[in-house]
Design a protein that fits this description.
The protein has about 260 residues and is mainly alpha-helical. The chain has one domain. Helices cover about 75% and strands about 0% of the residues. Helix 5 crosses helix 6, helix 6 packs antiparallel against helix 9 and helix 6 packs parallel to helix 10. It starts with 9 loop residues before the first helix and ends with a helix.
Amino acid sequence: MSLAISKIDLTDSCAVWRRNSRVYLRLWKTELVAPIIEPIFTFFAFGFGVGALVTSDVEGLSYLSFVGAGVLAFTVLMRTIFEMTYGAYFRMVYQSTYDAILATPVNAESLAFGEIIWAVTKGVVDCLFILPLVVIFGSATSLFTPLSILPLIFGCIYLGGLGLAITAHVYEIDYFNIFFALFFSTLFLCGAWFPIEMLPGWLQIVAFIIPTTSVIDLCRACLTGNFAVKHIYESIYLLIISVLLLEWALRSIRKRMVA
């Protein structure tokens, strides 16, 4: 059995990406409102609101510095997961965009990969707007801050693959409510707002299994310059999970749209 990834035609995937980018350029003003406004209010709520209640350092950092990675990752990853669930579902079911694309020589794997790469692109664009806010609010104190884009890219690939695979198996849009209930619940375990070491031992294991934990931890290391050996293992784990979920997404789209 051959890998679905091997069937990707990058030229065709780029064509799908260009199609989505043209739509984005027509709507860019409204598309950028949320990723700019939401982090500002989140910083005020968590950085200054909750931060005022946290008098001690968190992992050797002020709470404002600690929470910066959570704000950055939360905003960027949300963009990807919504794009690959509701956005992809509308294009697939209501707008029949996928049917139209597959009527051309573009295969299902190239279509799916182009969609995921587009979701990653939107996440990176948001990141470029949010990073200056992270610096302004004092949550980024390291020269390695620009490198925080790298774990976010892999985070977007992993969530893009997961989201698109789930979407391929959803036949009623209301079923997304179950997925998002589970997904948002896990965000409280990923070290975005407090250290996972504060959780019970068994729950810490669950937290470390969730890839979002690695994304946030690696982002925090880049923003603060506090690197450790564990970040090597987290990077490898994130890479493996991204590839596996990407493969699942490609196979799922083929099964839904072609088989």
